[in-house]
Amino acid sequence: MTETAETTETRHIITVEDDGPSRKKLIIEIPAEVVDEKIAGSIDTVAAEAEMPGFRKGRAPIRLVEKKFGELITREAKSELVTSAYSAAIEEHKLKVIGDPIAGDVAEHDLVRGQAFKFEIAVEVMPEFDVPSLEGIKVAKPPARGDRRAGRWRTQETPDQRGRSRTTRRARGRRLPHRPRHHDRRRRRVL
Q: pTM above 0.70?
């Protein structure tokens, strides 16, 4: 099953192909205009921070910045384009992705001005399956066995001598015999 769509806001051409029961292959093509805009934006970003001898910070000519930092600029632009296109593809096709994407041939292709950038990414997705109807299934419920003692006891919060609350078990309808604990000074043990 192949689905092709063109996103209007990012202008990417995205094709989704089945690559197994729980794997999809995304073929994404980014038009040349978008590539040129992203490279120009990356050049401006790098030029604003570039420190070159003979020029104040951020004031070096664009051609010198492009010549010195060309590889950094294209790598940054490529990374941003791939990330935004991948996110747009996942959102647009409502894919439930499991794990990280497997970048197929992204590293092999170079980002070139004036040319469209096309790459493939494989992703693992939640498998699709049909849940049968539970309407006609009958379940036998075994009778509950009760503990005779469980009904006689209840838990109650009671304050102790210091005002702290503590949980005690009392029999329903009657009090438990209370045996205070105290020190016998002669024997030095707790009774």
A: no
